[in-house]
Amino acid sequence: MQKRPSWDEYFTDLVVQVARRATCDRGRSGCVVVRDKQILCTGYVGSPPGLDHCDDVGHLLKNVTGADGITRQHCVRTIHAEQNAIAQAARHGISLVGSTFYCSMEPCRTCAMLIVSVGASRVVARAAYHAAEESRLILAAANVALEVLDTSPVQYAGQLVTPNGAEG
């Protein structure tokens, strides 16, 4: 007999499908926002409507040095899956108060602040994020529960910048 997935398994599995729509191959991630076992909105990494996509014109990379002193390259052409989900909800007048964000990885600092601002109560991340220390503090301070299913940070090609400036 097939075991029925839990609600968390069901929604985290859907995150994988949503992420397939992402338009930046450096971090194809997705987000499914749920309340009372009902999907409210979804989002994936991609450029704002009408703007160029990485998959079409290439990445717009910026070097960012984190609190850990490590310089990483971030693509700034796109917005994060969580941001796109929140924008989709706003466009359609959907309140996210009391919702759960199911994400490909832990939210970055900016996404964590937005998640708190919309009144979410929980975040379930499929994987860790390499720079999530501040995000964890923000979510905890706002009493937003965080569950990370795989504590290994997501890695992708060209993410690290070595001291001589070459990609790692």
Short recap of the structure:
This protein has 168 residues and is α/β, with parallel strands linked by helices. The protein has helices at residues 7-19, 54-57, 81-91, 109-117, 133-141; strands spanning 30-35, 38-44, 61-65, 71-75, 100-105, 122-128, 145-153.
3D architecture notes:
The protein contains five helices and seven strands. It is of the alpha/beta class and 168 residues long. A five-stranded mixed sheet has the order 2-1-5-6-7, sandwiched between helices. Helix 5 links the parallel strand 6 and strand 7. Helix 4 runs parallel beside helix 5.
**Lateral arrangement of strands in the main beta sheet:** 2-1-5-6-7
Net shape:
globular
The run of helices and strands is: HEEHEEHEHEHE
Number of strands: 7
Whole-number radius of gyration?
Answer: 16 Å
How many DSSP H or I helices? 5
Q: What gap, in angstroms, lies between the N and C termini?
A: 46 Å
Instruction: Give the helix/strand class.
Output: alpha/beta
- Residues in helix, %: 25-40%
Summed over residues and divided by their number, the pLDDT gives a mean of 90
Give the biggest sheet: 5 strands, mixed
Poorly predicted ranges (pLDDT <50, ≥5 residues)?
none
Beta strand %: 25-35%
